[in-house]
Design brief:
Length: 1007
């Protein structure tokens, strides 16, 4: 009888064997059909480019071996030939990549069996290398990585008896699913006293007051906790707390860093912008776009200028920029590193991507090429770090823009009129102007000791200085000539101290309060330094007595700012200098004869002028006026006068607007000396080239502005017109980073928020979501939160409301041995993590319980140091500062943060290093911290104030100790604690007992 089952069983191995034989035959035929050159192109060259050329190229040939070209590869290295065509055993390269522990590649995983097989087959067939084919280093990694995959919302796990399990929202479902898989159970909820302290510290950074604790603990409303979360999220202290986290990530500080570590007096508006943004719950995408390109994308919002402090938040090499020109190699290196910091800050902070690893070579672990990296540098190629003026009032900003637009139109009209005048006056006018220019450019080649007038030195450029001349009586002044100084200090030379912005006024009132007429106004935009070329302006009009020059933005001297002028001459129609030898008054003066003194301003000498030059200039000026009087018709003369009058009116309106504020930001800079910037070239971006090995002396091809080629629907090179504004590059990057398709951005921020609530991120490497970073502990939860955040309005407060209301967040932090045996690090969150307070929270809490915390918000930061030698390399002396100074009792977010010399007390408590992009704080518990908390003079003084506070509240010794406990720890002391501290206070004083309470671990931990 036919057994179909048996027949099928017998037939199956025969069929499998036949198919296997056919596949082997097909592979063999394919291998024979593939030439050695084909094998090289398809299977060998890609491996060499990803794994080998990084160390063996023409520029960096380790062991003398380059694999970038056929000629160099066949030539071998220091040990001889490594490739012998046709000889597998004799080719040393194959031996290096083979075996259980291969010598090569030095880093990363060994080559796969298939890759090694391809190399052997290539050599065996003759090691053909197509002529002219050069290999270039390429990133070894691809985009098949969890953080580069498109975001998609995972399903929320189904939890049986969810209510019984304590599930409050979707977060708990994801957490419980992982706990269930590991055989774990969550911890019960913490008590209300613990929860209110936890919430206050997480959301506000200060402890709750005793009456706030009592109200919450005794509130019968079952939704009292949820109401408390909502209430705290709306407190102004919320922005102060969460701004500190953001400033860690972007390494904000109030000094430059590096060796001289000069002050940044105008950095603080960016800090205030961050506080206001968190309090206003600014959508996160907008928050990013403002910080990268606020001036372009939000032109009517002053916050768009303040936000650019993000680009300049990091360290800045003063010496490399202000003392070394960009034409020198050291200057180029300084500017390369400056752009590197801008790129690193943007990509680390906003996308958790270590793009800076590709500055010298392709990224070793993530798919980032050098060209990608330098394309990002090209985005910031026009920018420098400098003070930028802006109007904090949007209405004033709008008015200023309209007036400046009108002035530009008038300037164009004046140029047209001037051209008409030149045509009417003929070649004689051109000849006179040429002679005037020649006189202005003449130089004796020798310096006189009487340099001129020199103001007092300032630490900020935005301090007004003025100097004025008293002609003795009212006189008709036809022309005014003023000349810059020359001094070799700091290699400045011509134009030393010439103000970046200034105006010149004339009046008959010594105080310049009445009848003031402005004859020159360059106070609204930086004026190109004229060096020692005399500047001439027509005055005319009614007789005057006083001439005042006011500097509204001072010139850079070294790390400070001054105003200096060599000479001011007031000429009448006959060319007589009416100002010669007259009295000079000024706001201040260094008065350092003979080089610098007020009277030098009217001594008739200036650097670069030959004897008699002033008289010749005056005579030519008279000829010029007479020529124009004869040549011009009434219509042209009227058009010129009308245009000038309109210009003066508009200029006065601009001058009458409120003073602009300054913010230290990424900006187009126009400077002098070594720190020139791109403003002199109209802000045209610098040419950025791919630097081989990151070496400025070894440039490659030009890099076009762009980003990373990771997302299919996002172009990675920005399609911008050839003559585009530099801001469009930043705007394009801002849009690319905040695109919905860019999953890294949304994963990064929800992970950071999670970290600050739980002490550990879902990804425990918040700045690195690449292959060298950590894998997510709860990948589905991370994806769900990222999509929920991105598609739900990008609200940080909504995200925090979701987290804080979860049962996971409300868990007790009590230790459970049976759970710890399965998950010792609490990675699965079977309990709440115990977290120590950061340095700022400890300091603010000490001030709070001592009754000394000043709640004043915003504005310049306070100094918790005494500043010495600010004109050169500042010394920040913390030991000389008085902790009782009320100006220092504001919240720590307003502390003036110094990079090179951190506050020793704060540093001991693990304050963030502002020179680093700090993704999470260190948390050390050691003797130094204990000694600082016990003996630092700040702690000693605040303990005294704390004791005075509880004494004022009255009661006996036991009641005072109880009050101190309630203020500091939010609870009543146990009887043993109370009795022990009463005895201690009786012996050593209440202040020492209060200091002991502030040194309890319970005070320094969230719960």
């Amino acid at each position: 009888m036919y057994d179909s089952t048996r027949s099928a069983t017998l037939f199956r191995p025969c069929l499998v064997g036949m198919l296997w034989g056919l596949s082997i035959l097909t592979i063999a035929q394919s291998a024979r059909a593939e030439s050695s050159a084909d094998i090289f192109r398809r299977r060998v060259a890609p491996v060499l480019e990803r794994r080998c050329v990084v160390c063996h190229n023409d520029d960096d040939s380790k062991g003398g071996l380059s694999l970038a070209s056929r000629e160099r590869a066949m030539a071998g290295g220091d040990s001889g030939a490594v490739l012998v065509p046709g000889d597998v055993r004799g080719s040393a390269l194959l031996g290096m990549i083979d075996g259980e522990k291969p010598e090569m590649p030095k880093s990363g995983a060994p080559l796969s069996d298939a890759e090694r097989s391809a190399f052997r087959e290539w050599v065996k067939q003759g090691a053909d290398w197509p002529a002219g084919l050069r290999l270039e280093e390429r990133p070894a990694a691809d985009t098949d990585w969890w953080s580069l995959h498109p975001l998609s919302r995972p399903a929320i796990p189904a939890i049986a008896n969810a209510a019984d399990q304590g599930t409050a929202n979707a977060i708990d479902a994801f957490i419980l699913a992982r706990l269930r898989d590991a055989g774990l159970q969550p911890s019960p909820p913490a008590d209300r006293r613990t929860l209110i302290r936890r919430l206050y510290y997480d959301l506000l950074g200060i402890p709750p007051a005793p009456h706030q604790i009592d109200r919450f603990v005794n509130d019968p409303d079952p939704r009292a906790y949820e109401r408390l979360v909502d209430e705290l999220l709306e407190q102004p202290q919320y922005g102060e707390r969460w701004a500190r986290h953001w400033l860690d990530v972007v390494h904000y500080a109030d000094t430059h860093g590096y060796d001289k570590d000069k002050l940044r007096p105008n950095a603080w508006p960016y800090r205030d912008y961050v506080i206001r943004s968190f309090n206003a719950d600014r959508p996160y995408g907008e928050f990013i776009r403002q910080q990268l390109a606020g001036d372009m994308l939000f032109p009517d919002d002053p916050a768009g200028i303040e936000a650019l402090g993000f680009i300049s938040a990091g360290p800045w090499d003063f010496v490399g920029h202000a003392e070394v020109p960009e034409s020198k190699i050291d200057g180029q290196i300084a500017r390369l590193l400056d752009r590197d910091d801008m790129v690193s800050t943007a990509l680390n902070a906003l996308m958790s991507t270590t793009v800076q690893c590709a500055r010298c070579h392709h990224h070793k672990f993530d798919p980032i090429s050098q060209e990608d990296y330098y394309s990002l540098q090209a985005v910031f190629a026009a920018l420098d770090r400098a003070d930028r003026a802006y109007d904090p009032d949007p209405h004033v900003a709008h008015t200023r823009r309209e007036l400046e637009r009108e002035r530009n139109e008038l300037e164009s009209e004046r140029q047209r009129i001037d051209e008409t005048i030149r045509q009417m006056a003929g070649p004689r006018l051109a000849e006179i102007d040429k002679q005037l220019a020649e006189l202005a450019s003449q130089s004796t080649g020798a310096e006189r000791p009487e340099f001129g007038y020199h103001s007092a030195i300032e630490s900020s450029p935005d301090v007004e200085k003025w100097v004025q001349i008293d002609l003795g009586e009212r006189k008709v002044v036809e022309d005014l000539i003023y000349v810059g100084c020359h001094d070799t200090f700091n290699n400045i030379g011509a134009g030393f101290g010439f103000p970046r912005r200034y105006r010149i006024e004339v009046a008959n009132d010594e105080r310049f309060t009445e009848g003031v007429r402005t004859v020159v106004d360059h106070s609204t935009a930086d004026f190109a330094n004229p060096g020692v070329t005399p500047q001439t302006v027509k005055v005319g009009g009614e007789p005057i007595r006083f001439i005042r020059v006011t500097a509204t933005r001072l010139a850079l001297r070294q790390a400070d700012y001054i105003f200096a002028l060599a000479e001011v001459m007031a000429l009448d129609k006959a060319g007589v200098n009416l100002a010669a030898g007259r009295e000079v008054q000024s706001l201040d003066s260094i008065e350092a004869p003979v080089r610098w003194q007020r009277r030098n301003l009217v001594d008739g000498y200036f650097y670069g002028a030959k004897p008699g030059s002033a008289e010749k200039i005056a005579a030519l000026g008279q000829l010029r006026r007479e020529l124009l009087d004869r040549s011009l018709d009434d219509a042209t003369r009227k058009a010129s006068a009308d245009c000038q009058a309109k210009m003066e009116a508009v200029t006065k309106q601009i001058a009458d607007l409120p003073a602009r504020r300054q913010v230290y930001a990424g900006t187009i800079h126009s400077g002098s000396g070594a720190f020139v910037g791109t403003g002199a070239q109209g802000g045209k971006p610098r040419e950025i080239r791919v630097l081989r090995r990151g070496d400025v002396t070894n440039p490659g091809k030009i890099a076009s502005p762009g980003a990373l080629p990771w997302f299919h629907d996002l172009p990675h090179r920005f399609d911008l017109p050839a003559e585009h504004d530099e801001g469009q590059r930043r705007a394009a990057l801002a849009r690319w980073i905040t695109a919905k398709e860019n999953g890294l951005t949304w994963r990064s921020i929800v992970n950071r928020v999670w970290l600050y609530h739980f002490g550990r991120g879902l990804v425990d490497s918040p700045n690195d979501f690449g292959r060298m970073g950590q894998l997510p502990s709860h990948p589905e939860l991370l994806e769900w939160l990222a999509v929920e955040f991105r598609d739900g309005g990008e609200s940080l407060k909504a995200l925090q409301r979701l987290i804080c209301n979860s049962a996971t967040y409300r868990q007790s932090s009590e230790f459970r041995q049976e759970a710890a045996e399965k998950d010792a690090n609490n990675q699965l969150l079977w309990r709440m993590n115990r977290r120590r307070l950061e340095a700022e929270a400890i300091r603010d809490s000490v001030l709070f319980v001592a009754g000394k915390l000043d709640p004043t918000m915003y504005g310049p930061g306070f100094w918790d140091f005494v500043l010495e030698k600010p004109e050169h390399s500042p010394h920040y002396e913390y030991d000389k500062q008085d902790p009782n100074d009320p100006k220092t009792h504001r919240r720590s977010i307003y502390r003036f943060v110094v990079r090179s010399a951190p506050d020793p007390f704060m540093e001991t408590l693990d304050c963030a290093d502002p020179s680093l992009l700090v993704d999470k704080r260190n948390e050390t518990i050691n003797a130094l911290g204990a000694l600082a908390m016990l003996n630092n003079k700040f702690m000693v003084r605040m303990s005294q104030h704390f004791a005075a506070r509880v004494e004022r509240e009255g009661g006996d010794a036991a009641e005072r100790i109880t009050a101190a406990f309630r203020h500091a720890l939010g609870r009543d002391p146990l009887p043993s604690e109370r009795d022990g501290l009463v005895g201690y206070a009786n012996q050593f004083g209440l202040a020492n007992a209060c200091r002991l309470i502030l040194n309890l671990n319970e005070f320094s931990f969230v719960d």
